[in-house]
Amino acid sequence: MVDPEVQERIAVRRTELDDLEEQLVKQLAEVRAEREGLAAERVLARMGEQVAAERAATAPAVAQVGGKEVLHSPRRGRRSPRTSTPRPHERHGNHGSWAQATGTEN
What pTM was computed for the model? Predict the structure, then answer.
């Protein structure tokens, strides 16, 4: 048979360990919640950086002319026939010379 004093010590220690476990479970839950919050903040910060980079990439270029800020407009170059709509004079095909197109040719 186990001594009653030993049984009492075991019961007290078990109660102490149960209390400690409860505190640790609460503390662990708080730590995990804080970690998740920090992870969410990092994701939001990263997304904010991406949005800022996209805005900077798509922002119109600004230059100064005569001390005033003006928007830079890209040069108008030749358009690729595959990616652009035809110009008005290109819409009806090639009519040859102007004289042929207007019927004033001899």
Answer: 0.43
